[in-house]
## 1
Amino acid sequence: MKGTVMTLRTGHTGLNVTDLDRSLAFYRDTLGLVPLAESERDGRRYAFLGSGGGGEGEAPVLTLWQQADGPYDSGRAGLHHLAFAAESMDRVREYESALRAAGAEFAQASVTAHREGAASGGIFFHDPDGTRLEIYAEKGAEDAPAPDDSAPACGFF
């Protein structure tokens, strides 16, 4: 496709999980994703989750596949982290509160700017299998600390 402008965009992300029920509860109850379908094929359970804004025929945002036999391994090739965009920093902080109440493991104390002086920033945390996740907003992090060794941004957690 040399010379052609690429028009690809991310459709949905598939994650391997060790316990579908536990992961469904986390993504549904804590992050607010809506189950679109759940099934089992060849002894493997899976679920499609959406944002809840699309109604009938909504495309999935996330697919969970119960086929992992161990936690996420950040030292292996593959997914580094999955980032979700929120409409505002206030919404990021609402997710932060819900995640802390649910006992999620965080990579830093609170909202972190993406870099020194950046308006964008977010929270960096792990799902029940240790998969690295981020929820960010494009603006509102101007007064948040910049990433360093003790408060990493999206590249270093």
## 2
Amino acid sequence: MKKYISLAFMAIALSFGFVSCSVDTNEEPGGTNVEKMAGRWNVTVDVVDESGNVTDKDPYNIGTFTMMTYNTADNNINEMWLDDNSSFWNFKMKVDVKYDERTFSCSERNYDAAGTGTAVVTNGKVLENAAKNLHGMPNDSIVFDIKFSDGGETIYRISGQRYTGFKE
């Protein structure tokens, strides 16, 4: 009986040798078209006036929260998603990107799936190596201003740095 079981296992093992995946592919590995702007960010929110001066630090006592920027489904170099992961105003919206300048903005756009609110994003930038992480190493930074249609005249500045995996 052991002999038949051993032969069966050997036959199965050999059959895997004849079945393989094709190593030929037309796809080149790589990132997305907005990969240097895409990421997970640890950010804070402040209120700013029309001149960009901070008038209220952390108005809702949220502290630091995580938000995301990522490519669109069609991997367009001129667009990316801005998503606060329901941590602040529950926004998820596409913004226009100037990738070579690492800037982003958008005129009035829906910021939620229900289409009940709009927002305007201005002064958006991803600054390479402009921040320092917990260990003093250079880290990318993000900053942008956002004004919500259901938030009155208040302008919020969201700023922070790329998530490193360490508690910052």
## 3
Amino acid sequence: MKIDSLHLENFRNYERLELDLDPGTNVFYGKNAQGKTNILESVCLCGTTKSHRQARDRDMIRFGEEEAHIRMMITKGEIPYRIDMHLKKSRAKGIAINASPIRKAGDLIGLCSFVFFSPEDLQMIKNGPAERRRFLDMQLCQMSRSYVQNLSGYNRVLMQRGKLLRDLPFHPEYLHTLDIWDEQLVSYGIRVIRERAGFIKDLDERVGSIHEDLTGGEEHLAISYEANTDEGRFLSELRENREKDLKMKMTSCGPHRDDLSFKTQKIDIRRFGSQGQQRTTALSLKLAEIELVKQKMGDYPVLLLDDVLSELDSDRQKYLLEKISRVQTLVTCTGMDDFRDNRFRIDRMFSVEDGTVHIISSDTTKAE
């Protein structure tokens, strides 16, 4: 997959923007708070319907406007596609593929794929399990239509069950309906667990060798899926925990409490890894993600690097930049010093200042 061009209208701090992108490496540089990350956000949103910032539609519309429009032209398997997205303050977003409106976000599955890497991802290893579940969900939702449907169904039932638990003190006559919600939660939850387990198994098969390369053969990384429950126990655990759930007014078991573990030589990197080990683990994870998407989807994803180079030392920078040579990449940075001593092929360079983007070079250049 390649992004050919991007059009923004009243999105974030952009009144209007037209960008032609190179199929190689595109660098956007400028000071902080000028709009660099907004470009990456618009790309991710248009291709997945989700903002990596978890922002609401209305919050991404330019101040004082009622609507925003994103148009992205892509090529997938040598076939061109046009994706249009309209954000509206008072209504649900509208999406069209090749000028034909689509009814559900799941219709985009398989058309676009991205791997997003930001400074926050470097913290994912040591932060709480919610961020690791979000990593799982973001990638699986791009790869599997069934996962989108099952996760959406699970979250919907989880919310309804939680509402019932909170309402039961005032309406005890509805206690018997908990059985219905439990059965639905288990039905969706089992399918979510299966797809997550398969994804992590595939990822683990790739991440070990990447991590060994990054650490000069000193460490082998293993990723494990820590399911909060399993297929055979989910329903019985819900029933065993019912009194606890009624007291706490929340569902205490299920895939909404899953986690991932990262271990090298049996050391839990989440708890005992150094900052350097945790960053190397995050980098290994993202590079393995690229390879897995290529294998599953038949094409490389677009890589979105949001000001991450400045957070990596020169060795990790060099390894990353060498590995993405075949991947279309959009990079944001605050200056060319972020590339440090690496000689790096830049195919198109843009400066970003206060919502205005200027192309600096469309020739192949080198960052020294």
